[in-house]
Structures are given as structure tokens and as C-alpha cells.
Design brief:
The chain is of the alpha/beta class and 431 residues long. The chain is built from 13 helices and 13 strands. The chain has helices at 28-40, 64-77, 90-100, 107-118, 122-136, 168-204, 219-227, 270-275, 277-284, 300-313, 353-363, 382-389, 409-415, and strands at residues 10-17, 44-52, 81-84, 103-106, 208-213, 244-251, 254-260, 288-294, 321-326, 342-344, 369-375, 391-397, 401-407. A six-stranded mixed beta sheet has the order 6-7-5-8-9-10, with helices on both faces. A hairpin with a 3-residue loop joins strand 12 (391-397) and strand 13 (401-407). Helix 1 (28-40) runs parallel beside helix 4, helix 4 (107-118) runs antiparallel to helix 5 (122-136) and helix 5 packs antiparallel against helix 6. The N and C termini lie far apart (69 Å).
């Protein structure tokens, strides 16, 4: 189902603005984003047409008069395809393809094509393939030219050949449903492996931080800046599809697993939201979300809202979240009100990264502390618990067993009489 836009790379973009379309309606902003998506896919937008009408035409979506205007633009600009910013029904794609004489796809089809180009890991490829088949299934009619019965029931075959047969369409549908079932099984296996890895992390009590944000907000650049991960970070939409996780030392007493996730976008095809659950389900198990916002984009508020809505859809809105206003080297400061749990940074120049790490440390502070312990030799049995629940950094044997370790509050309570310079923390009201 992959559209090769590299060979047919001049596109006229069309959008319909209508009150009945609600979230799927189009405006100039959405068409500009569609043009950026076309460029990401290796194509070029050569013209745009925005139609306003009370409701979509059930037959041709934008009305036959407007279709004629699009057809003239296709001829003038020598375009090889027309891309709609709205979702089209299978019959509308068929009708528009016939009327315009060039390939017609919708925004979902374009995004799926980009995802197919970008996916690298086995998991990413499986997810894209599943989304493509789910998108393709209802669109089979009109995409196949061989819809006559295999036994010749088109009326053109010889007498006696019109047997019951099975339409090619039914055969193709059954084949695609089998593929979908197989892909779901393989993705379930991926989830099982992820679940095992997650349980291991939980056992080790390593907190998980997930970086989320609108596509091209600078998530990969941020992960590179704080971990040296070396992920390709380019100024294009959907550059990261496969989740990358790295171990990050936030402070002396806190290590976390930090993960980059696929960028969100308005009108994300629901097949992709479903197919990428295996990647995005990591959000549900994260201890902290870092929501990266491109502060240099004039539409940052709308983009942040779209991400918040998708986080809600993924049932991850109960997780603590830090809002990170990125690209502050390009944006004016002081335009936003004061926010708690927010920080302005530039992932590119490194400005503000120390404040971000301090905020992550503060949000995930579980009361762990680095301490020096002096254990009598008859108390060395306590070492097992320190290794199990804490993190031993150094151990020396002299008059006592001297241990430098990062300990949880529970360990601190058990070992306080052996801790060098121990003082009980007092509540404010006790001071």
C-alpha cells in the first residue's frame, strides 16, 4: 500500500473547512503542516486549495465545481498527485481519482507512507505494516482493477463459465485479515518482551522518564544533549519512530531510564495510535513525563494541547509531568505566565539543561541519600540488604567495614546508628 512519492513528487494540497468536520476540519495552519509532511516524504507541494462549505459532499467531498478547479491546477502545475488534508472515504478516493486523473491520497495515507520510510527496528516495521493493512482494508474497492469473479461472471466470459467462484476482492480481504492477525500476534510478543524488561527495571527500582511532544519539537536533540545518545536529530517531521532508551545519571543519588518517543501530530491516523500502543504503552508505566514544547513555534499552545489530549487518550495523564519549553534561544521569553513544573531550555546550546535535571531530580526524589556507614564486623549481615535495596559505591575493611552507599529511606531508618554524622530530618513544625 506504500505510495512512492519520490517518483510522483509534485502534489496539489486540498483541504475542506466545515463546522461538521470538527477535529478533521482544515485551516491555513493545517495545510502548511501538510506541506511540511509532503516535504518529509520526499515530495513538493506545488499548489494549495482550501474550500469552505457547510458540509462535505458525500460523492466528491469538496463539490464538483471545486474538483474542476483542482483538476485545472493539476494540469497547470504538472502535478502528479493530489493530497487531501482531511480523511476521505474509500468511495470518495475512487471518485476523485477518476475525476482528477491523478493519484489521490489523504493525510492519513501520507503519514503512513512517511512512517513506512522511517521505521528501522523490527518493532517499528511491524507497527507500520499493521497500520497500513488496517488503513487498506476498507479501501480495497477501487484500488483493485480485477474485481470480476474469477470464474468470469463479468458477463464477458464464455457461456458456462459463470460459476459461483469467489471475488478477488473477498480473497484479498481474507488475505489481509490473516496478515493483520499475524502482525498482532507478533506485536503481542514484542509487548511480552517489553513487559519482562519493565518488570526487571521495577525490581531494580530504576525510575522511568518518557520524553513526549509534538513532532519536531526537539525531543531527540534533548535526549542527545543530556545522555550523549547520538540519535540522528534532523529538522524534519517524524524523524524518530523507534523508541530509544538510555540510562541517565540525573544526580549523585538518582539514575533513571529516559526514553524518546514518536512525535505526536494533529489528526494522527487512529490506525497509528492503535498500532503504536506497544511503543506508547511505555508512557503508562513511566514515573515522569517530560513534555517538550517548541517555544519558537507560533502555534506552540495548540501543539501542546494536542499532545495533552493524546496523553489523556493513552491514560497517562495521572503521571507527573514537566513542561519543557525548548528552543528558547530562538523564542521570546516572558510571553508565558509563571508555571510550576516548567523550565525553558535550548537543547541545541545546552542552556537550562542543569535546571531541567534539577527539576527531574526534585520530582523523582524518593528520599534517597548518599551516606558513609561504619559497620561493626558482627553486623556485616546488613550488607546483603544494602546491596539488595541500595547502591554500594565503595567498601573498605579497616577497624570497621566502611561503606559508601546510596540508601532508600527504609535503609536509612534501619542503619541510622551506623551512619557517619547522622541527623534526623526534622519537619518544619518541629524547628
Amino acid at each position: 500500500m506504500e505510495q512512492d512519492i519520490k517518483k510522483r513528487d509534485y502534489a496539489v494540497l486540498v483541504g475542506l473547512r466545515s463546522p461538521v468536520l470538527r477535529e478533521d476540519t482544515t485551516d491555513e495552519e493545517s495545510l502548511a503542516e501538510l506541506a511540511a509532511l509532503v516535504e518529509t516524504a520526499g515530495g513538493q507541494a506545488v499548489g494549495t486549495i482550501l474550500q469552505s462549505r457547510e458540509k462535505p459532499d458525500p460523492h466528491s467531498f469538496i463539490g464538483e465545481g471545486k474538483v474542476e478547479e483542482v483538476r485545472r491546477m493539476v494540469e497547470e502545475e504538472k502535478a502528479t498527485m493530489v493530497i487531501f488534508d482531511n480523511d476521505l472515504s474509500p468511495s470518495q478516493i475512487r471518485v476523485l481519482t477518476e475525476m482528477l486523473g491523478v493519484q489521490v491520497i489523504d493525510r492519513s495515507g501520507l503519514i503512513l507512507d512517511i512512517f513506512a520510510q522511517r521505521a528501522k527496528t523490527r518493532e517499528g516495521c511491524l507497527q507500520v505494516e499493521l497500520a497500513q493493512y488496517q488503513y487498506l482494508l476498507p479501501r480495497l474497492i477501487g484500488m483493485w482493477t480485477h474485481l470480476e469473479r474469477q470464474a468470469g461472471t463479468s458477463g464477458k466470459g464464455p457461456i458456462g463459465s459463470r460459476g459461483p467462484g469467489e471475488t478477488q476482492l473477498e480473497s484479498d480481504r481474507r488475505h489481509i485479515r490473516r496478515k493483520i492477525d499475524k502482525l498482532k500476534e507478533e506485536l503481542d510478543e514484542v509487548r511480552r518482551v517489553r513487559s519482562t524488561q519493565r518488570q526487571r527495571r521495577m525490581k531494580n527500582e530504576i525510575p522511568v522518564v518518557a520524553i513526549v511532544g509534538y513532532t519536531n519539537a526537539g525531543k531527540s536533540t534533548l535526549l542527545n544533549a543530556i545522555t550523549g545518545a547520538g540519535i540522528p536529530a534532523n529538522n524534519r517531521l517524524f524523524d524518530t519512530l523507534d523508541t530509544t532508551s538510555r540510562l541517565l545519571q540525573v544526580s549523585d543519588t538518582l539514575d533513571v531510564v529516559i526514553s524518546d518517543t514518536v512525535g505526536f501530530i494533529r489528526k494522527l491516523p487512529h490506525q497509528l495510535v492503535e498500532a503504536f500502543k506497544a511503543t506508547l504503552e511505555e508512557l503508562e508505566y513511566a514515573d515522569l513525563l517530560v513534555h517538550v514544547i517548541d517555544a519558537s513555534n507560533p502555534r506552540w499552545e495548540k501543539q501542546a494541547q494536542i499532545v495533552d489530549e493524546l496523553i489523556h487518550e493513552l491514560k497517562a495523564d495521572q503521571i507527573p509531568c514537566i513542561r519543557v519549553y525548548n528552543k528558547c534561544d530562538l523564542a521570546f521569553s516572558g510571553e508565558r505566565g509563571r508555571e510550576e513544573d516548567a523550565v525553558s531550555i535550548s537543547a541545541k546550546t545546552g542552556e537550562g539543561l542543569d535546571r531541567l535535571l534539577a527539576l527531574i531530580d526534585q520530582k523523582l526524589d524518593k528520599g534517597t541519600r548518599r551516606v558513609t556507614l561504619h559497620l561493626p564486623y558482627d553486623k556485616t549481615g546488613l550488607l546483603d540488604g544494602i546491596y539488595r535495596e541500595g547502591k554500594v559505591e565503595n567498601i573498605e575493611y579497616s577497624e570497621t567495614v566502611d561503606v559508601v552507599a546510596i540508601c532508600t529511606p527504609r535503609l536509612l531508618g534501619q542503619l541510622k546508628e551506623y551512619i557517619e554524622g547522622w541527623r534526623e530530618e526534622k519537619e518544619e513544625w518541629e524547628m
